[in-house]
Amino acid sequence: MDCIFCKIANKEIPSTLLYEDEQIVAFNDNAPQAPTHVLIVPHHHIETINDLGKQDSALIGHMILTATQLAKDLSLAEDGYRLVWNCNRQGGQAVYHIHLHLLGGRNMHWPPG
Ligand code: 5GP
Ligand code: ZN
Q: Helix, strand, coil % (nearest 5) of the chain?
């Protein structure tokens, strides 16, 4: 399968890995939209968050808790940060392998663009 995040998770494509376990990897976005921009990505290929089911509850919880732990480790927790899931075309999804964005280090705007 020609999926860039499968290749990053399998180490076929290099990235700056910040965290890895048997379920997920976390690495720096290569076109950061904030001073800190990390992507939390499951090893398992799932195209969009529309494809998630009850069987994925633990995986999604693990992704969120990993993001909040990284936010603490990267000294973002106190000032604040944003977690983002983009879904499909109008949601701004470009890579069709689910991922959670962790953005921090600047003021975030609301409403989002
Ligand atoms: P999306 O728009 O799908 O929610 O986000 C995809 C993200 O993946 C974008 O922020 C983009 O910069 C990032 N990205 C795309 N290709 C690569 C890559 O090859 N390496 C890394 N580290 N990030 C990537
Ligand atoms: Zn994939």
A: 30, 20, 50
